[in-house]
Amino acid sequence: MTAQHAEEPAELVPRPEPTFPALRAALARVASSRLAEFQADRDSAFTAATQHASFNPIRMFQIKWATEIEIERRPALAARYRAALDGANSFDRDDPRWRAAMDECLAVRNEARAAVTDG
Question: What DSSP letter does each residue of 27-73 carry, written as one string?
Answer without folding.
Answer: HHHH-GGGHHHHHHHHHHHHHHHHHHT-SHHHHHHHHHHHHHHHHHH
